[in-house]
Amino acid sequence: MSDVAKMKEAAFPAPTVEEWEREAEKSLKGKPLERLVSMTYENIAVKPLYTRRDVEALGPLEQYPGFGRYVRGARPEGYRGEPWKVSQEISAASPSDWNEAVKHDLERGQTEIHLALGRLPFAVESVDDVAAMLDGVPLDRYSLRVDAGARSLSFLALLAAYLEERGVPLSSVRGAIGMDPLGAWAEQGTLPCSLERLYDEMAEATKWAKEQMPAVRTILVRGEPYHNGGANAVQELAFSLAAAVEYIRAGLDRGLTVDDIATRMQVSLAVGADFFMEIAKLRAARRLFAQVIEAFGGGESARRIELHVRTSPFTKTVYDPYVNMLRAAAEAFAAVVGGADGVHVSPFDEALGLADEFSRRIARNTQLILLEEAHVANVIDPAGGSYYVETLTAKLAEEAWKLFQRVEEKDGMAKALEDGFVQTEVEAVAKRRLDRVKTRKEKIVGTNVYANLEETPVEKPKQDAANVAPPLDEKRVADIRASLAGGKWMEAAIRAVRRRATAREIAAALVDGNAVVAITPIRAWRLAEPFEQLRKAAEEHAERTGSRLSVHLINIGPLVRHQARADFIAGLFAAGGVAAERSDGFASVAEAVEWVRNTNGTHYIVCGADDDYPAFVPALAEAFKQAKPNAKLYVAGKPPEELERTYADAGVDGSIHLGSNAYDVIVAFLTERGVALDGEVR
Fold first, then answer.
1. Phi-psi bin for 500: left (phi > 0), alpha (psi -120 to 50), beta?
2. Contact 294, 248 (CB under 8 A)
3. Which architecture characterizes domain 78-419 according to CATH?
4. Where in the numbering of this chain does the Methylmalonyl-CoA mutase alpha/beta chain catalytic domain appear (predicted)?
5. How far apart are CA 139 and CA 131, in angstroms?
6. CATH of domain 529-673
7. How far, in Å, CA of 677 to CA of 577, rounded?
8. What's the whole-model pTM score?
9. pLDDT tens-digit profile of 122-159?
10. Where are the domains positioned within the chain?
């Protein structure tokens, strides 16, 4: 038999888990295997290795997409029949600019028209505004997704009147024109009118759409308000699920069926940086929503929830913003692998202001590359059967269900928000995230690690203030209110729009006399903000004084002995906009002190190897304090306790090491240098 034939017949022996564990423990040099287990923000322990045993412990898995509770996808054919919607949210400075942008992007690969009324820099007040935005936009060829915020009835009336004027059948519109009052309440802390009245509007819009726009969803359930406040995946799922249950109950109380409600509901979730966690989150979301709708008696089609997914603004940065392209690409990949029905990819300059044509193109093409070049749509549920993803999906669903039940015990999502339960839960996780960012255990490339002090900032044009809305016509408001009294709110609102009523006037007419409860909002923030604030303060100080702040590094010995710690210190201070002035490697204390005398620094850090410190640092500290009594001296690295005392006695002011809180170190330095800080970002 030839050698090639023997090779073809050969097989590698399959090691057992026990054999792997023994080898892994050897690599750990006696440390326990548990050291490889990590805890997520969801308090889920992630093992270093998953095997068939893990999925066998879960019980029978769903074998095919499009069945059961749709963990593996809502459609049996996955994306092979129809790819996900390239649903980039478009914003622009004016209705005419928005019109140009949407037509431009639709011609270049976008497949859904997407806007969020509350994030536009202008108000959509009249049918003329709608006409300016949609003139020449082929609504018959593309679905439309409108996030209307707390209420949607006024915008629906504007759109319906516009379509009637253009002779476009209402039934030809498809997509989602939805409201999410609980999400808006969580974000803003207040509502335009009572929650009960908003539920009335939701029911009226849903009943009208069922007859006039049957392919349009009118109820949004957004997880972003919780995600953008720092919530973990369990919380985003649980609170979204609790909001959906609240909407189902409100709709049932107002004469809708569970199928009416569920088939007109769209769930919108954010996808962050934890790749596998986010894939599992989307899979768990389908399972949980199917479970709830089934419990309400919903039919099979009603249990098939539609998932819109946005890459996370929470993970994006102001500094080194081009890295945001890579972040968004990884997040978009997770969204698609997780089975999103529509995806919005954040433009890389999202944190800086309105996206321009270039940043919109990069974001849109991120999706098109996944579709056309990476061929992700060719495989149905690529994560299905993965020992890790299946285990994580099950664990996420289990933990989210537990938290959802806690919300139910508090009489539902509205009461949980009113009592502050949701805010407290999110804030606890947000604090953990913030602490890890400040200590750089949570790394943000280009911000708290690998900051580039020489980068050229992305310039964004200043945005003009939004037009001031004209005062309400109180007589028209009264007339609209009188017409609403007969029921059929949508028809009455459309008639009012035909008489050129504005969205604000319709909304004012719908306000009831019930009190609006104010709650503590969940503040949206970004992980990078703490260090961005410090760096901005340092840059403003440099502009005022004409020079950038710096620390001075006293390097000991040859490059190989001091470079690692010198790079560490330089990287740490760069995160706060502070440069590092490095010395050559000194062989003697006298050389080092002479260099110190010839520099104009205020903060010096000794960088070298541990073995070099005992003989060098005490003598240097004594001479340093004589040469520069008002300057501060630190050592890079954490000395043993006894040496730390010796160094302190000699005049060393402290140490900076891997365990230091980098944020606090930079704040102390900036404060001592007289830099004005606005305080904590949270």
1. left
2. no
3. Alpha-Beta Barrel (3.20)
4. 40-117, 118-510
5. 12
6. 3.40.50.280
7. 13
8. 0.94
9. 999 999 999 999 999 999 999 999 999 999 999 999 99
10. 78-419, 474-510, 529-673
